[in-house]
Amino acid sequence: MLLRLVAGFILFAQSLAALAFQAVDVLTPSSSGRFPAYPTEGAPLSEFWVQGGVMVDDNILRDSSPPPTETVLRGGAGGRKDTYVYGRQMLRLQGRVDGYLFDQFSDLNNIAYDALGEWHWELGNDLSGVLGAGRRQYQRDLAQLQRDTKDTITQTTYTANGTYLLGPHFRVRGGVDGARYDSSRFEETDLRTLSAFVAGDFVTSLGNTLGVEYRQTRGDAPVSELILPLARAVDNTFDERTLAATVGYIGPFLRLGGQVGRTKREYSELPERNFEGTTWRASADWLVTTKTALGFETYYLPESVIDVAASHVLVRGVAFGPGWAPTAKLNFSARIMREKQDFSGSPFVPLGVTALRQETVRNLRLGAYWEYTRQIHWQFAIDHGQRESNVSGRDFKYNAVIANVRYLFW
Predict the structure, then answer these.
(1) From the centroid of its chain, how far is CA 367?
(2) Which of 193, 220, 196, 198 is nearest to 211 (CA)?
(3) What are the b/e assignments for 261-278, b being 16+ CB within 10 Å?
(4) Mean pLDDT lowest for which of 31-45, 82-96, 216-230, 379-393?
(5) Which of 57, 1, 31 is closest to 369 using CA atoms?
(6) Alpha-carbon distance 270 to 349, whole Å?
(7) Confidence (pTM)
(8) What is the pLDDT of residue 225?
(9) What is the end-to-end Cα distance of the chain in Å, rounded?
(10) Number of neighbouring beta carbons within 10 Å of residue 200
(11) Which of 256, 337, 267 is nearest to 302 (CA)?
(12) pLDDT tens sequence across 299-318
């Protein structure tokens, strides 16, 4: 829980080239918990909202030869409902649906949704956990397609986890997570993963943690991939194991969390794509004043991403995200990110040679969140990004301006 809280203080690194509406979606009010000057009020048991937004993007297809400037309209609704069904047993239901209308590339018009159901269970004072399932639908990353092609990705997730307290300072954790990604247009990029973990933590009286975690993941792309040098189709089944040390700390002036460990990924039929090395993910928030925070993030790990044509991508990134909340109703934020992507699992890489495709993405975001009234919340963002690639035609730059207004029902 503490690691999730710390991660919330940083504008998490998401795909640079996804629709830039995410630049406003990650913005939060001054009372979200990042700034001590404005204590969080605590989430209500239920909340519902409607919203509308507009984005102007000068390279919506993320092409090396930019198309005309595009305007995208968005309208949506969402909400969350927490219900205590018996004692401390809580059922959480939440979801949202958004419609996107493109001015010029109308073939990209789409409806996206995200739904989640979770059972937060407790047995006595020492045993607790979560059972949940979710479904999400969205348009494939246009930076990978680089054309006005509609491809709907459906993501289905399952989770079951638990925590057992062994006295006041020790706990053990464990669980399983499953995910399924299905493309409406490109079946060869479909993906299935199943992951299990066990962990142990030392917990201080202030709630800070130091622990160790072991995670094992089984992945499978159900459609076999044709490898020309072998003149045959092979699958991309892999096993990944990570043993890592974890830390979580919240102090009066510093909040940090993360893990560092050793990861080994092995493919059943293509050992040339195996990976083994030190991996990490860490974030920190330095509270310069009660109204000012400086966020830092770094990460290096292999990722299986359905949006790209590769069994995995090695990503190494750093990010800096300052924030300033002059009032309880208004705050400003920025995020500067640089990420290097090594497509070592690409099907276009000849076996036994260095990865053919390597790319570097950079992103700068400026945002403002204005709680005009308790019900009306405004979000504004400027988003600039670029990609440099050693593959012809994949370089691009873009600029986007986004405005969004949300009306909340309590």
Answers:
(1) 18
(2) 198
(3) bebebebebbeebebeee
(4) 216-230
(5) 31
(6) 12
(7) 0.89
(8) 61
(9) 26
(10) 16
(11) 267
(12) 999 887 665 555 678 999 99
